[in-house]
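Recap for those who missed Tuesday's class. We walked through two folding examples back to back. For each one, the amino acid string is listed first and its predicted C-alpha cells come directly after. Nothing is annotated here on purpose, so try labeling regions yourself before you check the end of the notes.
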Amino acid sequence: MNIQFREINPFDVWIWLKFSTIPSEREKQYVEEVFNSWFYLGKLGAFNAENLQVQDTGLDISYLNYDPQGYDKSLLALMHNMGEFEYEGDWGRCWFDLGTSDAIALDILINGLTQLSEEYVTIEELYIGGENADWPIEDSDNHAASLYDN
C-alpha cells in the first residue's frame, strides 16, 4: 500500500483509499468498521500522546504503577466529527474533523489499514489530506451531514 500525505488541515481532512478493484459490499463493511472504530476511539480521547504511560515504560510492564490521573493531567485530545464513507469506482473516501487528537491517531489508522489490506481487501493507495482531481470534494455533502456533532 502506497501512503501519501498531502496538505492537511486537521479540522477538515479527507482520507482517500484506492482499492485494487471495485470493493464488494463485504469489503466496504470491513473498511468502514476500521474507520468507525478508529473514530470512536478518537472521539473518546484515546489518541492522547501526552498520556502514553504504558508505551513510555518500555518493554517490561510487569507491575507497572499506572497513574489513573495521568489522563486528567494532559490536554484533551478529542476527534470531533466524521462524515459518511463514500465510494466511486475503485475509490473510497471519508471526511474527518480530527479536532485536537494527536498525530499518533494517524499512525494507528495506517497500521490498521495496512493489515486490513494484507488480509481482507487490497488497498493500493492511501492519501491523507488534499483532494483527488478525479473526484472533487464539492460533490460531497459530508461537511453539512456529519455523523457526529459536538
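Example two. Treat it independently of the first, because the proteins are unrelated.
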Amino acid sequence: MTEQARWGVGSNQYKKRPPRPHGPQPSPGLLKSAAKDQTDELGFSWDSSGIPWDEMPGMEVPRALARFEAQLAGHVWDAAALEGNPYTLPEVQTLLEGVTVGGHRLDDEKQVLALVESTRLLHGLVRDGTFALSKPLSDRLHGIVAPHEAIEAGHFRGEGSVRGGGRVNLGEAGTFKATGCEDGGEELRAEYTRGLAFLSGVKNPIERAVAYFCFGTRHQFYFDGNKRTSRLMMNGVLLSSGHDAISIPFSRRLEFNQSLVTLYADADATSLMEFILDCRPEG
C-alpha cells in the first residue's frame, strides 16, 4: 500500500477515547488564580488539571512532518467538510494529484486548493525551522487559506477600509460579539499581543498549541476563516515540538460545535480543549 493510499484513512484514525480518571486536583485557590490570569490576558479560561496533555507522544520533528504529510488529504478534507464543502475524501485526493474534479462549483474547488496550499506552506515552515506564533505568519496563512471568503484576507478586521464583523451566531445561546474594529483594529492587535505574551509562558507546547486555537477562534481577528487559520497555527506549534498535527474530524462536528458554543458563550475553553486532545491521532 502506498503512502498516498494511507491518506484515505482520514478522520477514521481519530476515535473517541474512554474517559480518563483524573489524578490529584490542584487547590481551588490555585485554580481560581490561574483562571483569573487566563481571563485577564486571553479573554477566557480553562481547567487543565483533567486534560491528558501527557498522553500525546513526542517524536522527532521529521517523523511528525512525515506523518502529517501522509495524512494531508484527511486534514484538508476534514477542514473543508466542516465548512460545508461537498468534496469527498477521494475527490480531495484527486485534486492533490493535480487532476480537476468535475461536477463542483468553482468556489468549492478554490476552497479545497487554498487549504492544500496553506497546509503545504505550514509543512515547509516547520521543516525549515521558520514557524513561530506571530501576527505576520498568521496573516500570511490567512491570506492563503481564506482569500475567497474573507473580506480583506491576510489582515485583521479593521486594518483595511471595512469595519464590523466579529459576530458569531450561537443559536439558542444568542450571539457572541468579539471586540469591534472601528479603531482600525488597534484593540484587536493589542489583544493579540497580550495573548501571545501570555501563551509564551505556557510551558507545555501541546497546551500552548490548543490554547492558541481557542484564542484565535474566540477573538475573531479576521472577518472569516478564523478556525482554519487558528488550526494551522496550532498544528505549527505541535509539529515544531515533535507532536502529531491534529485534525477535527467531520464525523464529530456536533461535539465540536457544542464545545465552541461553550467557549463563546461562557468564556470556558475546557471542554473544547478536552475535545481537541481526544481527536489526536492514534499511534
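Answers for example two:
The chain has a mean pLDDT of 90.
The chain has one domain: 57-278.
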